[in-house]
Amino acid sequence: MDERFERYVTELFAAEDPILSKIRARHAAENLPAINVSPEEGKLLYVLLHAIQAKRVLEIGALGGYSGVWLARALPPGGELTTIEKDPKHAKVAQEAFDMAKLHGRVRLVAGAALDVLPTLTPGFDAVFIDADKEPLPKYFDWGMKLLRRGGLLLCDNAFFHGAAIDPNDRSPNALGVRAFNELAAHDRRLVATIIPVRDGLVVGVKIRESA
Ligand code: SAH
Ligand code: DHB
Ligand code: MG
Domains (ranges, CATH) in the chain? Predict the structure, then answer.
């Protein structure tokens, strides 16, 4: 998107409060990669969760807790975000972010690799936001579909993966993972889905049935 439109949306709809600004500043101070969602993508996630009155949400890939704060803030009292993070340093920064945002009661941070943690979770999530490593994305698709309730949202960041999604010559494991995920989202009959071209692309799907 034209940067001027992005700025307009961010300033009007997605202005950061001091806590979100501080979390981003801490990413830099702790040398975490600056690959968190943008404010307008965070606001989009926040709006989508409100649309379905989400109570139980799963995130794969917490990093420093930036997207997690947007997600958890969309939940009603008694709601819960479960977020999985495999890097212990990222998990520590994320936990501090949730504490700082006074969301500790609403966020369960599970330290570990996604494919180890996912089989331990109870199905019935209202939304699953996938934003971790890209090579296993087809596996994350299967887990997301398994863990979502009917009517739940399947969300996945980096649908374009910096252009790799539309470059058939890019045969890197990450590019193959992203393209495979997008193709599953497009064709799986249990899902209606599209890509919203926000930042690096966000897959948004609704699980409409349990079996194809
Ligand atoms: N959602 C975050 C950004 C996530 S960046 C935000 O927008 O604020 C991707 C994160 O996924 C990194 O912190 C990385 O350590 C984590 N990650 C990578 N592979 C993982 C895996 N297999 N299981 C769990 N987390 C993983
Ligand atoms: C990268 C960016 C992301 O937003 C992400 O979730 C993972 C990786 C990257 O630029 O490599
Ligand atoms: Mg991402």
Answer: 3-207 (3.40.50.150)
